[in-house]
Amino acid sequence: MNNPVVLITGALTGIGRAAALAFAAEGSRIVVSGRHEEAGQGLATELRALGAEAEFIRADVRREDDVRNLVDRTVARFGHLDAAVNTAGTEGKPGPVTEQSADSYATTFDTNVLGTLLSMKHELRAMLAQGSGSIVNISSTYGHRGAGGASVYVASKHAVEGLTKSAALEVAGSGVRVNAVAPGPIETAMLDRFTGTSERKAGLVASVPLQRLGDPEEIANAIVFLASGKSSFTTGQVFHVDGGKSTG
């Protein structure tokens, strides 16, 4: 499809931002979303300078009215919605189970799980009506394995993978596909917050068979593929882009 319409949540930093730039390079029409107006308008301006039709719409994925408005405005602006990429996420409060609380659980799950659920709900509403579309969620290597000191984050990413597979099966006969990308350690501000120290970060790098961190652009390339017609026979899958970390 020429100049597909792509919606990206959590688009202002990290993987979301890299995805927006990658879709712009492909000639897509893009709606970027996040909670910060100034940064969002700046990204939209940057995308337009690359030749893309781009809009910023402020939304908090934890609020259903925001998400409903985001999807409705995207469709009103461009006429349809071909692909949606749900990258909004948080590392929450790293630490052992004994240090977690109802608040730290809610902070993590409200963004990572509820945000993904609400985003898919309204993206699917638009896509099912038109009989086509592709959704890509963001999981993690922690979405299918445990990790000490990251219990709530790990649980949230397990939930994202379950939501992805369930939604994919629900809509499999409709022309709409739902997949996820599971990054390994990626050079982002979130990783810096998650590891906390250079020593812990170096230890994480040592656990990657390729012996380096991934770049956000490498995750963006996988996202663009899954969102495109080149993956038209792929749904309900979790693509690992992790330097071999999930192999062992």
At a glance:
With 248 residues, the chain is of the alpha/beta class. It has helices spanning 14-25, 37-49, 64-78, 102-130, 151-170, 189-195, 198-206, 216-227; strands spanning 5-9, 29-34, 54-58, 83-86, 133-138, 176-183, 238-241. The chain has one domain: 3-Layer(aba) Sandwich (Rossmann fold), CATH 3.40.50.720.
Describe the structure.
- 46% of the residues are buried.
- The protein starts with a strand and ends in a 7-residue tail after the last strand.
- Strands 3-2-1-4-5-6-7 form a 7-stranded parallel sheet, with helices on both faces.
- Helices cover 47% and strands 15% of the residues.
- It has 8 helices and 7 strands.
- It has one domain: NAD(P)-binding Rossmann-like Domain (Rossmann fold).
- It has 248 residues and is an alpha/beta fold.
- The model has no long low-confidence stretch (mean pLDDT 94).
Proper CATH architecture: 3-Layer(aba) Sandwich
Number of strands: 7
Supply Rg: 17 Å
Cα end-to-end separation: 38 Å
Biggest beta-sheet profile: 7 strands, parallel
**What's the number of domains?**
1
Category from helices, strands and their pairing? alpha/beta
CATH top level class name:
Alpha Beta
